[in-house]
Amino acid sequence: MRKRPEKTEQTKEDLRVAFWRLYAERSAEAGGKNPIEAITIQQISDLAGYNRATFYLHYHDIYEILEEIEADLLLGMTECVESCMRSLKRDSSKLSCIIELGKVAAFYERRKRYIVVLLGENGDPSFIIRLKKALKPIWREYLVSEEDLEGRDAGEIELIMEYTLSGTLFMISQWLKEPSGVSAAQMGHLVYDMSIKDFASRLR
Questions:
Q1: Structural domain harbouring 42
Q2: Does residue 54 sit in the same domain as residue 101?
């Protein structure tokens, strides 16, 4: 009997939810260790309400679930940022940019259960590296002009971008972890002033 697509997707979602609950808990207790090493397939299966055989029908191992979650998140985050940058190129006014950045912040807020953990101190360092690697070409395309490149070493621009992106991602992760009354729109203002505007000014 062929599996119904909706049933298959629901089962995978149940397994992902169970995995992430365990991953988030282990990350909080990690103490410098890799949280995924403290999770077993049996624990995921039990929490999701399935047996181990069901797990293996959908995933080869635990790492495949993490890779799937991270890949979906990376795609969504980069598409969201690129949409914002395209809008900024069409209309460089602060108001237009703030509106788009507010959408980016709202997207991040909807995915906060993942982002807070992955960008946290016990998260997956490789995720942050891959995220910055995915975002840098977008920043170069939309924020670095030919004029900026004149008489400036490419390595210097790379370091400025690394500094800005690292600070921005840390700021966003802290905001998601503890909003302190700061709205998505206000966060958009902060990202514009401290990231996009600051990055542009450093290139001048």
A1: 5-59
A2: no
